[in-house]
Recover the amino acids of this structure.
């Protein structure tokens, strides 16, 4: 298919339609409402299900209901809405139904603002709801990448019967780039054997996350953890840029990952051998690779649009005397190339 | 525990376990009307022949384990969210039959937004709303439908409306939505009212099957354990006190719903 100039929110919404999205339930919230608007037209055009819910609380529960019947279903939101959906995410994870949700992160905490941020990293990777579970978290840094990740998200959600998030910093949703959409895929006709679609000619199916006995619930949790271990083993993804000869390492994701490509190039022009590792999955996190790279560099600089969240995962992965520095901006302020570069130079000086 | 008995040929079987109920003992307290209403729903589903295409949505409350007692596909919603979950199920599976079973905390406290909006959208769903004016599962706290002056574990000196507000009348509220086609309030305090409740549930379910809109059957029930009465006392107390504040009757019935032939 030909490349077109697309706005991020429209791109991921249309990609979902092409990848066979059967139902969308959502609520308007800046900076992702264009996705809901786009789907309100396209889903109806394609004869699929669209509903603007009365709240994010309702939306995620509609998603949960649809997912329990085995249809391909998705929602999208931003920080304040994500917080409201957390209860639903926990139930979804506990009941093991496949769900994809996109978070276009904005400034927080609280009402914050509508500027882009990466301030929901902890929320998405570590505490997307009460109880022990980890969603898969994909982190695009371009319009093409978010399009591709929508397809990947559905696949992974269904393969593992789990929750998959796409973590967009708000700029991904708002910016426009040329990218290629996939061709229209036919809708799946069959439903999984666990789906609650009526007990015709079989024993009833139940979709629940309630297991009252302690040993029973522990057994369920052990099974969930085994599943997570399998995901950790097989689904971690990242990109490296010029790490072969690097003696300083940048770690950044999303839009900041892109900014850091420029930081790296500029640093190299100025004689510093800087490399970049850009995680594409925030969970599972590329901790093994970062641990290995840490042995080959003098120092690491993590750049994020938050107060230092992925920073903690990098520090944990490093587990060695190599210093890990941090460059963070908050509230929607973008870190600029020259500002990050200044911190790269500081890291260089302090680790010689 | 149930006992399978062989029926002698010369005898006619006139009463048996509905196919839509599973043959297990329930965990409900002695005298709990959940047992009554579960059975009414199961009989209606059998009579309508829809067991194999039904998906029930269980609430959070004493009936959180309802899915153990119904022999059909069931999902467990979070507290108050059953109408939203049911909306997701029905809209993606319009040929199936979907009902929610909810208590007073579930529907009238935490789930008020979800039930009003589902009714307002005219979702093709049926809700059975069990109102016993108290929170049973969590040990007897005040419910949004607790009567003025009623003693509960969170209103130890009796519900003071100046502090805790007034009991909420959900049937009256739901009846005002455009999308609701049948809203009625019944009770299960004696045989006659139990029969009426069954008929109301059947009409509500038929309204969904006929594609007419949203229906809700509110059933005034008891909670002997948390009302601190014995089961018969509780039934008597309900008969004398509940309907005074929550008047029985049909609050909304469109002509199409009225025209349904409910046997």
């Amino acid at each position: 298919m030909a490349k077109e100039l697309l706005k991020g929110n429209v791109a991921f919404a249309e990609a979902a339609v092409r990848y066979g999205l059967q139902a969308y339930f959502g609520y308007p919230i800046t900076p992702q409402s264009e996705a809901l608007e786009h789907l309100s037209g396209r889903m109806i055009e394609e004869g699929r299900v669209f509903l603007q819910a009365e709240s994010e609380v309702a939306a995620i529960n509609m998603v949960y209901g649809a997912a329990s019947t085995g249809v391909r279903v998705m929602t999208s939101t931003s920080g304040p809405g994500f917080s409201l959906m957390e209860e639903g995410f926990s139930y979804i994870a506990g009941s093991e139904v496949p769900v994809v949700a996109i978070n276009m992160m904005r400034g927080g905490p609280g009402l914050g603002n509508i500027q882009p941020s990466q301030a929901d990293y902890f929320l998405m990777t570590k505490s997307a709801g009460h109880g022990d579970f980890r969603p898969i978290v994909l982190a695009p840094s371009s319009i093409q990448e978010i399009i591709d990740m929508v397809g990947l998200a559905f696949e992974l959600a269904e393969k593992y019967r789990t929750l998959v998030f796409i973590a967009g910093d708000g700029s991904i949703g708002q910016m426009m780039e040329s990218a290629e959409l996939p061709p229209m895929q036919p809708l799946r006709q069959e439903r999984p054997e666990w789906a609650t679609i009526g007990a015709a000619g079989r024993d009833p199916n139940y979709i629940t996350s309630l297991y009252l006995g302690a040993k029973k619930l522990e057994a369920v949790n052990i099974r969930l953890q085994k599943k997570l271990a399998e995901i950790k083993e097989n689904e971690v993804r990242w990109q490296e840029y010029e790490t072969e000869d690097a003696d300083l390492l940048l770690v950044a994701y999303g839009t900041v990952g892109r900014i850091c490509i420029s930081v790296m190039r500029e640093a190299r022009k100025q004689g510093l051998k800087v490399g970049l590792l850009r995680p594409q999955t925030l969970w599972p996190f590329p901790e093994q690779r970062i641990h290995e790279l840490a042995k080959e560099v003098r120092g690491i600089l993590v750049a994020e649009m938050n107060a230092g969240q992925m920073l903690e995962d990098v520090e944990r992965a490093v587990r060695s005397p190599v210093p890990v520095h941090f460059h963070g901006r908050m509230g929607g302020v973008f870190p600029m190339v020259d500002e990050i570069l200044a911190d790269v130079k500081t890291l260089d000086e302090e680790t010689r | 525990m149930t006992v399978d008995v062989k029926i002698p040929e010369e005898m006619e079987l006139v009463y048996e376990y509905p196919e839509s109920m599973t043959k297990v003992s329930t965990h409900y307290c002695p005298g709990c009307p959940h047992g009554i209403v579960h059975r009414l729903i199961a009989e209606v589903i059998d009579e309508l022949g829809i067991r194999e295409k039904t998906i029930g949505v269980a609430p959070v409350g004493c009936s959180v384990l309802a899915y153990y007692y119904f022999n059909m596909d069931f999902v467990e919603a979070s507290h108050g969210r059953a109408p939203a979950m049911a909306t997701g199920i029905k809209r993606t599976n319009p040929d199936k039959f979907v009902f929610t079973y909810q208590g007073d905390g579930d529907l009238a406290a935490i789930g008020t937004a979800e039930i009003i909006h589902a009714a307002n959208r005219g979702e093709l769903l049926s809700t059975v709303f069990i109102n016993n004016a108290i929170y049973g599962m969590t040990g007897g706290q005040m419910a949004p439908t607790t009567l003025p002056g009623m003693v509960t574990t969170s209103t130890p000196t009796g519900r003071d409306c100046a502090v805790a507000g007034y009991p909420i009348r959900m049937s009256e509220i739901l009846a005002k939505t455009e999308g609701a086609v049948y809203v009625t309030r019944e009770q299960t305090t004696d045989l006659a009212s139990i029969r009426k409740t069954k008929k109301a549930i059947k009409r509500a379910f038929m309204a969904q099957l006929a594609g007419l809109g949203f229906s809700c059957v509110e059933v005034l029930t008891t909670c002997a354990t948390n009302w601190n009465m014995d089961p018969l006392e509780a039934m008597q107390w309900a008969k004398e006190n509940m309907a005074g504040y929550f008047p029985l009757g049909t609050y909304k019935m469109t002509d199409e719903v009225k025209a349904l032939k409910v046997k």
